[in-house]
Design brief:
There is one protein chain. The protein is 52% helix and 7% strand. The longest helix is centred in the middle third of the chain and has 12 residues, at 45-56. It has helices at residues 8-14, 16-22, 25-28, 45-56, 68-79, 88-95, 101-109, 124-127, 130-138, and strands spanning 86-87, 113-116, 119-122. A hairpin with a 2-residue loop joins strand 2 (113-116) and strand 3 (119-122). It has 2 domains: 8-56, no CATH class; 68-138, Arc Repressor Mutant, subunit A. It is elongated. Helix 5 runs antiparallel to helix 6. It is mainly α. It has 9 helices and 3 strands; from the N terminus they run H-H-H-H-H-E-H-H-E-E-H-H.
Length: 139
């Protein structure tokens, strides 16, 4: 049987670190790890990022230019997550091809997407399976 969640008074008296360790199943089983563990960022990643921002105005480490086909993939992947969806003409210009109209019609028939004014967008029903929709359209 699991112990109940600690009360606010317990949290303030023993501290959050101890609570996290006390809820660890290995600790509860009486393992050798008796002391609480403090988790920290690996290799000072925040300090490195901040130094890059201060020196360069951004924290990017690598900028790889995207080919047009990769830009089209990004448009599809990110744009369908937006309420307004994607501009089909822009996708076609980037990808060098139109999205498959049969696939689009099939998704619309299942109330997963809709096309209005040249824009493809995912419906509320489609958001639950958005990754599958993107994968289907990207083929």
């Amino acid at each position: 049987m699991r112990d109940p969640a600690p009360s606010a008074a317990t949290i303030s008296s023993i501290g959050a670190t101890e609570i996290m360790s006390a809820s660890d199943p290995a600790r509860m089983a009486g393992s050798a790890a008796e002391k609480p563990v403090r988790h920290h960022e690996p290799s000072g990643i925040r300090k490195k990022w901040l130094a890059l921002v201060e020196a360069n105005g951004h924290g990017r480490v690598v900028d790889d230019p995207l080919r047009q086909s990769e830009q089209a993939d990004e448009l599809l992947l990110m744009g369908l997550r937006l309420r307004e969806g994607i501009d089909l003409a822009r996708y076609a210009a980037l990808a060098g091809r139109d999205l498959d109209p049969v696939r689009i019609a099939s998704l619309a028939a299942e109330d997963m997407s809709e096309v209005r004014h040249g824009r493809l967008r995912v419906t509320a029903g489609g958001f639950a399976v958005l990754d599958a929709i993107v994968a289907d359209l990207a083929v």
